[in-house]
């Protein structure tokens, strides 16, 4: 199997700049262990966290450039949004950023060709990757460890994590209230398994890393069967459409308005 792009110098620069610009220590370092394997993750609890109170849960899946086991790189994109004072005050939730191992993936996919002529093969019903199994175990662990409002569990992700968002929902169709994959994709034939929640999909039309058609084909297939889905396509934006998505003023109001 071939995977998405490896960590680039640009990602390293952005990661270092992000770490210097913002204190990410409120995201506590944790490790989930199952059957001799482990998955690092960071967890952000609400301000004035009350263990007897139920909270929504947001699960964030990073892209291929942030894979590893340092339990830090997965915070490079998106973590700052949930640390903003107005967000922490108005959208009290538990936020979890797991980290996928190097040379692994959230979803089993195949990639052929070089940028900008890449072709993705998304499978309709493949066996889960090792990290998907760990991710599902982590989700169950968090639900058991903390008082989670099980009607308000959300998942989002970018690039490889956008693909993982589709895959996690496909495998767990009755868990989530809303999902927001960014510059991801999946096999349109899985759409019927994605119908029990609301979706907001994002992509840049100048993306040469993950072609925009990967999202567009999913959106079309999901619309065709009546799924409640909205699509934000950013003209002239490349693979970093997550910057636009995380800057959407309606993203969190939309997300927190959804429940099962």
Task: Give me a quick take on this structure.
The protein has 260 residues and is α/β, with parallel strands linked by helices.
Provide a descriptive summary of the structure in words.
The chain is α/β, with parallel strands linked by helices and 260 residues long. It has seven helices and ten strands. It has an eight-stranded mixed beta sheet. β9, α5 (213-224) and β10 (229-234) form a beta-alpha-beta unit.
Keywords:
disordered N terminus, 10 strands, 7 helices, globular
Secondary-structure blueprint:
Elements: H1 9-21, E1 28-34, E2 37-44, E3 55-61, H2 85-90, E4 94-98, E5 109-112, E6 119-122, H3 130-145, E7 148-158, H4 160-171, E8 178-182, E9 198-204, H5 213-224, E10 229-234, H6 241-246, H7 251-256
Parallel strand pairs: 3-4, 3-7, 7-8, 8-9, 9-10
Antiparallel strand pairs: 1-2, 2-4, 5-6
Sheet having the most strands: 8 strands, mixed
Q: Assess the beta-strand content as a share of residues.
A: 15-25%
The gyration radius over C-alpha positions equals 17 Å
- Helicity range: 25-40%
**What is the CA–CA distance across the termini?**
36 Å
Mean pLDDT: 93
**Global morphology:** globular
The low-pLDDT segments are 1-20
Order of adjacent strands in the largest pleated sheet? 1-2-4-3-7-8-9-10
| Helix-strand makeup class | alpha/beta
What's the β-strand tally?
A: 10
Number of helices: 7
Can you write the helix and strand succession as a string? Answer: HEEEHEEEHEHEEHEHH
């Amino acid at each position: 199997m071939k995977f998405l792009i490896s960590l680039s110098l640009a990602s390293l620069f952005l990661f270092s700049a992000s770490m210097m610009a913002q204190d990410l220590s409120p995201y506590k370092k944790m490790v989930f262990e199952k059957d001799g394997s482990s998955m690092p993750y960071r967890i952000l609890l609400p301000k004035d966290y009350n263990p007897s109170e139920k909270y929504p849960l947001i699960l964030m899946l990073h892209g291929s450039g942030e894979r590893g086991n340092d339990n830090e790189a997965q915070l490079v994109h998106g973590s700052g949004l949930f640390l903003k004072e107005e967000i922490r005050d108005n959208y009290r939730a538990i936020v979890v950023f797991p980290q996928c191992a190097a040379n692994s993936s959230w979803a089993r996919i195949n990639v052929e060709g070089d940028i900008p002529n890449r072709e993705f093969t998304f499978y309709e019903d493949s066996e889960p990757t090792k990290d998907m199994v760990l991710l599902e175990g982590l989700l169950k662990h968090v639900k058991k460890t903390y008082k989670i409002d099980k009607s308000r569990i959300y998942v989002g992700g970018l690039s490889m994590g956008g693909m993982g968002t589709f895959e996690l929902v496909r495998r767990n169709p009755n868990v989530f209230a809303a999902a927001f994959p960014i510059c991801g994709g999946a096999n349109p034939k899985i759409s019927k398994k994605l119908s029990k929640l609301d979706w907001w999909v994002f992509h840049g039309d100048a993306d040469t890393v993950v072609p925009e058609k990967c999202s567009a084909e999913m959106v079309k297939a999901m619309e065709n069967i009546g799924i409640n889905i909205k699509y934000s396509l950013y003209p002239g934006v490349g693979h970093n459409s997550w910057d636009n998505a995380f800057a959407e003023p309606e993203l969190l109001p939309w997300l927190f308005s959804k429940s099962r």
